[in-house]
Design brief:
Number of strands of chain B: 0
Shape of chain A: globular
Number of domains of chain A: 2
Oligomer: heterodimer
CATH superfamily of the largest domain in chain A: P-loop containing nucleotide triphosphate hydrolases
CATH architecture of the largest domain in chain A: 3-Layer(aba) Sandwich
Order of helices and strands of chain A: EEEHEEEHHHEHEHEEH
Distance between the termini of chain B: 31 Å
Radius of gyration of chain A: 18 Å
CATH superfamily of the largest domain in chain B: MetI-like
């Protein structure tokens, strides 16, 4: 059993994705199915990863869950409530460049909090997140004056200060170099352990998915469908060079048809 | 001497500092003063104001040179950078003095020596001051109104599709008309000339600002808005925290574009309708054929408009400092 003992319980369904399909008109005026008939559920406090080749609709699925996009068919419910539009209860961390370049790191982190709480928002909470994200000393810098890793940690903090029920991570480490990526992965892991926030991570990095998540949802493209949901019961904290880790990776690679 | 050889790099004041150039620059202005004193004049001009101007210039150059040399490295960058330019200024002053007042190669009444311009400005000081203040007030009121209208319309047109659909085609056609074309009508329709002038300047300002603002709003990354939706931003907050700051770089381009148009319209409208102001003063000089008055007004305009330009530039630097990368 995983650290917080609420692994993948279909009975404890917190987030439910039911028969979700998303279709768009492409530039040639043709109807295109991006994701088709997606069904799965996520338990409260669970960490789930979505992996699959590019074009399999991972991000589309995440956007539907956030409410940024609405599905043509099916529905997504969170704690029984249907999701129709974005909300502060569902944090969303973008791949990169979503921080407001005209606000300092501190202002960025506090921007959602200020929107929710008004002018007298909880500055101490912002300071707390600056601290745990390792942004001390850079809080008054502008986003283009800090490294990509710092910017992503700030983006993470901006969502987390709102204490979301569900945190959606859209390849937030995708644009980072290898060293910085591990660094941000560790922070995500630490926060998940501490806050027990339900998290869904979109990634194309198999190791990242194995390192962080309790279940891994593998998708296939054209149109995006669920191929398999792989349980990942390795004990936390996980070691990237353990034989079980490598075995899990091999299994995932087989599912993804890697040679 | 070791100091003079050292090359100091500064992004803004990139020319190196050297005692030689600084002393040359002072000498160049001293030469201009000595020339004015010694060479016999062919026109009757009161050279007093010009000589005082040159003396102030010399002392100013000496001052920044010494302060830079002994006390402030910032002033040193500054005085070092502009030393060579100041030499050219000294030479130009000397040459224009010889060509006009001294030898009369460029003759009156169309060509006037700088000394005579200064003399005229001193003679008309009160009137010029009054005209300058009047022009400045008229410009400021009109420009602020025009820029505000432009920004507000630009944000509405850039952010709201329906508003854009119904109004932009009309506004585009109206906005492209030169403001001066409305002049005969406005002079008749408005109850007084001040309002007519304000209207004309506003008309020349709002469109470039609005047009650039639209582009600025539409160029904001969609991710910024999507992030805002997940962070609980209200529409009011989106305008305040994303649309306005995101469009500001473009808004400033629009403001700078319309700046020149507004100055043009200011002078033209004052020439036509006003009984005071720099445009009126020029028109008055034209009717009396006193071209040193015209040049005096031009000198003031050059100064005034440069200061306004520099101020807005400073404001832009301050407001958009987030664009500067870490140094």
């Amino acid at each position: 059993m995983a650290a917080n003992g609420k692994l993948g319980g279909e009975n404890l369904a917190f987030l439910e994705v039911k028969d979700v399909s998303r279709e768009i008109f492409n530039n040639n005026g043709k109807y295109l199915k991006i994701i088709d008939d997606i069904n799965f559920s996520v338990a409260d406090g669970e960490f789930l990863s979505l992996i699959g080749p590019s074009g399999c609709g991972k991000t589309t699925l995440l956007r539907v869950i956030s409410g940024l996009d609405n599905p043509e068919k099916g529905e997504v419910t969170l704690a029984g409530e249907k999701i129709v539009k974005p909300s502060v209860s569902r944090g969303y961390v973008f791949q990169h460049g979503s921080l407001y370049p005209w606000e300092t790191i501190r202002q960025n982190i506090g921007s959602g909090l200020q929107a929710v709480q008004g002018k007298k928002f909880d500055q101490k909470l912002v300071d707390h997140f600056i601290e745990i994200m390792g942004l001390k000393g850079f809080e008054d810098a502008y986003p283009n004056q800090v490294s990509g890793g710092m910017a992503q940690r700030a983006a993470l903090a901006r969502s987390l200060v709102l204490n979301p029920q569900l945190l959606l991570l859209d390849e937030p480490m995708g644009a980072l170099d290898a060293f910085t990526r591990v660094d941000v992965q560790n922070i995500v892991y630490k926060i998940w352990q501490e806050k027990k926030t339900t998290m869904i991570l979109v990634t194309h990095d198999i190791d990242e998915a194995i390192y962080l998540s309790q279940r891994i949802l593998v998708m296939t493209p054209h149109p995006g469908r669920v191929k398999e949901i792989v349980r990942n019961d390795l004990p936390f904290p996980r070691k990237r060079d353990s034989s079980e880790f490598l075995e899990t990776r091999k299994r995932l690679q087989q599912i993804l048809n890697f040679k | 001497m070791e100091n003079s050889k050292r090359v100091i790099f500064n992004k803004k004041y990139w020319k190196g500092w050297s005692s030689g150039w600084n002393i040359f620059s002072i000498l160049a202005v001293v030469v201009a003063l000595v020339e004015n004193l010694l060479v016999a004049s062919s026109e009757s001009v009161d050279n007093g104001p010009y000589r005082i101007f040159l003396l102030i210039f010399i002392f100013y150059l000496l001052f920044v040179y010494l302060v830079g040399y002994f006390f402030s490295s910032r002033v040193k960058f500054y005085s070092g950078h502009f030393a060579q330019l100041n030499i050219s200024l000294g030479i130009l002053l000397c040459v224009q003095d010889l060509l006009t007042e001294k030898f009369g190669t460029l003759a009156l009444p169309y060509f006037v020596s700088f000394a005579q311009i200064l003399e005229q400005m001193r003679y008309d000081a009160l009137l010029l001051l009054e005209s300058t203040i009047s022009s400045l007030v008229l410009w400021l009121i009109s420009f602020v109104i025009g820029a505000l209208i432009g920004v507000v319309l630009g944000i509405l047109l850039g952010r709201y599709r329906q508003f854009n659909y119904w109004s932009f085609p009309y506004l585009k056609v109206i906005g492209i008309i030169p403001a001066a074309a409305w002049m005969p009508l406005t002079m008749v329709v408005f109850p007084n000339s001040f309002l007519a002038e304000v209207f004309l300047i506003v008309l020349s300002v709002w469109f470039p600002v609005a047009f650039m603002t639209i582009g600025g709003v539409q160029g904001i990354l969609p991710t910024y808005f999507e992030a805002a939706y997940t962070l609980g931003f209200s529409e009011h907050r989106i305008i305040q925290k994303i649309v306005i700051p995101g469009a500001l770089p473009n808004i400033f381009i629009g403001i700078f574009t319309s700046l020149g148009l507004s100055f043009t319209m200011l002078v033209i409208s004052e020439m036509i309708g006003a009984k005071v102001g720099l445009g009126w003063y020029i028109n008055w000089a034209k009717s009396t054929g006193n071209y040193s008055q015209l040049y005096g007004a031009i000198v003031i305009m050059a100064l005034l408009f440069s200061i306004i330009f520099a101020l807005i530039n400073k404001i832009q630097e301050k407001v958009l400092r987030w664009r500067q990368m870490a140094s």
